[in-house]
Design a protein that fits this description.
The protein is mainly beta. The radius of gyration is 15 Å and the shape is flat. It contains one helix and nine strands. The longest helix is centred in the first third of the chain and has 12 residues. The structure holds zinc ion (ZN).
Length: 143
């Protein structure tokens, strides 16, 4: 992983073979990034994505082992249980230019992973477990 800091933002290059969610989450912990917007592009493999089934309060999973284009990664960082937590959704492209996408659990960089993190410099962006939804949802306050 390589990075460059520009003002309160970071350009992060997650390199071949590195896990994206693990690398970016660890980066946020190390840099004290508690509230942020993250976007990215690249090429990835061993992708675990899903969709949330509100009725069963559980995720449907699908694994893609092959190399796919990471067309778009959109995510945010908030504090959950005292630690930076990354929530991200992705859009993937096949070599036939078909598109898949979903909630991202984990994936590995196959060629490059190029991400931009905008650190909002805020410690009050929180996630708390919501019984009705069955997930830790954003709990925002304006302090
Ligand atoms: Zn999600």
């Amino acid at each position: 992983m390589q990075f460059q800091k520009i003002n309160h933002s970071y350009i992060v290059h997650v390199e071949e073979g590195e896990k994206v969610m693990q690398t970016l989450t660890n980066f946020c912990i190390e840099k004290g990034i508690h509230s942020a917007q993250i976007s990215g592009i690249g090429a990835v493999r061993n992708i675990d994505i899903g969709a949330y089934d509100i009725t069963n309060k559980d995720y449907i999973h699908r694994i893609f082992e092959e190399i796919l284009e990471l067309l778009s990664f959109q995510g945010n960082v908030a504090i959950k249980d005292g630690e930076p937590f990354l929530h991200a959704h992705i859009t993937l492209g096949t070599h036939d230019m078909e598109v898949y996408g979903g909630h991202l659990f984990e994936m590995e960089v196959a060629a490059v992973g190029e991400f931009i993190i905008h650190d909002f410099q805020n410690k009050n962006t929180l996630r708390q477990y919501n019984d009705d939804i069955g997930l830790a949802t954003l709990k925002l306050c304006n302090l």
